[in-house]
Every structure is written in C-alpha cells, then in structure tokens.
Write a structure and sequence with these properties.
With 139 residues, the protein is mostly beta strands. Strands 6-7-8-9-4-3-10 form a 7-stranded mixed beta sheet. Strands 1-2-5 form a 3-stranded antiparallel beta sheet, with no helix packed on it. The chain is built from 1 helix and 10 strands; from the N terminus they run E-E-E-H-E-E-E-E-E-E-E. It is 5% helix and 35% strand. The protein starts with a strand and ends in a 30-residue tail after the last strand.
Length: 139
C-alpha cells in the first residue's frame, strides 16, 4: 500500500493526501472510540511527514486523554484523526479515504470493552486491550 491516497470529511472542508506506506486497519472497540463515532474506530496510521492536510483551520481537536487527541471537522463533525501527543504519526479513520484504498483489516483492540450489540467474527486477531507493539491510551 505504498501509493498516494486522498480523503476528506463529509463536507469537504478538510481534505488530506497521504504518501508512502499505510498500516493495515486496526479496529478499536474502546469506550472513547465507540462514544465518539457511534460504533468502533477503523483506522490506519501515517507518519506526520507523509500527510498533507488542507483546511486545518476547520479541524477541532478534542483532548480525550493526556495521551492523545481526536481531530474532527468543526463544520460537519466528521471524525478524521487520532493523534498521540508524543509520537510522529497520526491515525486516519479508514472511512474518510476516497476509494479505492487497498486497505485491509489487521486486528481488533480493546475487545473487552466492545459494545454488547455486535460480535466480532471476521477471523482477525483480537486483543483484550492492545497489541504488544501498538502504543495506545490505557483508558
């Protein structure tokens, strides 16, 4: 997945282009992701140096924890980004990319916190909290 990819919020006030390698999609079922999105997060990562964002003045950042903040369009409310405070990457919500993405699911995290109205049965690895190598907030 080394091609350039573009995407945007629902209204188009925030647009972005990524270049280089994108990580597979990680599905996060933590209560913060569920409450912000209404379901669970599906996100990939890109290095800070490999994303260009237009309309940054339309992004509102919400500091949901001391570990990271969540970026969304201040006009239409689209959830776009999850940004750790001390790392040089940003998670981009997979659904905000224009098609085709060629992204594929990698795993599920925080499955012990998932909603009780659905099951996870896609065969991908599941982790009670996080993977051994993925740095995330520890709610």
């Amino acid at each position: 997945m080394g091609d350039n990819h573009s995407g945007s919020c629902l209204c188009g006030a925030v647009r972005f282009t990524t270049k280089g390698q994108l990580r597979g999609v990680i599905y996060c079922h933590c209560s913060q992701c569920r409450k912000q999105s209404g379901h669970f997060y599906a996100a990939t990562n890109v290095s800070d140096t490999d994303i260009q964002v237009e309309g940054v003045e339309n992004i509102t950042w919400y500091e949901a924890s001391s570990f990271a903040r969540r970026g969304f369009c201040r006009i239409c409310g689209s959830v776009l980004f999850w940004k750790p405070n001390d790392d040089a990457y940003v998670s981009v919500l997979a659904g905000s990319f224009d098609k085709p993405t060629q992204l594929q699911g990698e795993c599920h995290i925080f499955v012990s916190d998932k909603g009780d109205y659905y099951s996870i049965d896609d065969g991908l690895p599941q982790f009670e909290r996080s993977t051994p190598t993925l740095k995330v907030a520890q709610e």
